[in-house]
Amino acid sequence: VTKARSNKPLTTEERELWHALKKLSDVSLASVGNTIEAETGLSGADFGILSRLVELGDGVLPQQSLQASLGWQKSRLSHQLTRMETRKLLRRCESETGRRVHVEILPKGTATIEAAYPVHAIAVREYVLKHIDAKEGAVLIQLVRRLEKSLEN
Amino acid sequence: VTKARSNKPLTTEERELWHALKKLSDVSLASVGNTIEAETGLSGADFGILSRLVELGDGVLPQQSLQASLGWQKSRLSHQLTRMETRKLLRRCESETGRRVHVEILPKGTATIEAAYPVHAIAVREYVLKHIDAKEGAVLIQLVRRLEKSLEN
Predict the structure, then answer these.
(1) What residues 7-46 of chain A have any CB closer than 8 A to a CB of chain B?
(2) Residues B56-99: pLDDT tens digits?
(3) CA distances in angstroms from B63 to A10, B67, B77, B92, listed in the order given
(4) What residue spans of chain B are helical by DSSP H?
(5) Which residues pair with B61 in a beta bridge?
(6) CA distance B40 to chain A (A)
(7) How confident is the model at residue A4 (pLDDT cuts 50, 70, 90)?
(8) How far apart are CA A148 and CA A98, in angstroms?
(9) Minimal C-alpha gap between B58 and chain A (Å)
(10) B96 contact partners, CB below 8 Å, separation of at least 6
(11) Does B106 contact A at CB distance below 8 Å?
(12) What is the pTM of this model?
């Protein structure tokens, strides 16, 4: 949309797009998160973390991999993990060399996430995926890949 | 993408789109947030709140309007406002009837946000808007509107 490097205030159009980008995740997560929380007691963030531990790491992941997968900032993840440790859903442990911190799901975490999956699948389809056509979905996926790639450089 | 109400596990395609949606905001915010924080000391969340107070409310907004504009959950906003009150960037105050809580920017907040605007504009253009073409931007804005509307129902 914009090519020039400028420090002038964002135009109305630039601002609209920027706000839409920032809102998209929150809008998508709101109904799904509320449904899961009401039916299982897990927040959207809890669910995102537990499901990644199970799906990507078979129960355990380096904290850094978890962070990369979520696309969160380090401090946000750290606060969230502390809250989840208190609730005995997971624990952090040092690797054998003590160099890397791993995150490991605990039995209570496994039981809770298994019960939450069907609730999550219904909510994601009803509140979000149903409202996005295939073409829009392709645009979104491409865009995220492009932005991620530009961040790496 | 999906029409049927089903509690079966999300397919690979459904999962990819869902993860892209959740990631888009975080990916967009990461570089912009890091730049603003490095150059002004404001986090992305600080900036979002202060700029809304100035732009939407001329310095003061009902907490509920702020929440609606950010699209955040109530507890997330509440924690964030508490941190910003401690730093004397803003304060919460009750309306005359005591029914609604208002959020008011303080002089330190005003000075900080004014200094941050040019930094923000450069970063938003360089790290995000430059990578999105007009057609993609239109798809995103439409999609956010549609999801917001479906949430209202």
Answers:
(1) 7-10, 14, 16-18, 20-31, 33
(2) 999 999 999 999 988 787 888 999 999 999 999 999 998 777 77
(3) 25, 6, 9, 8
(4) 12-40, 44-57, 63-70, 74-86, 107-127, 134-152
(5) B103
(6) 15
(7) low
(8) 30
(9) 17
(10) none
(11) no
(12) 0.71
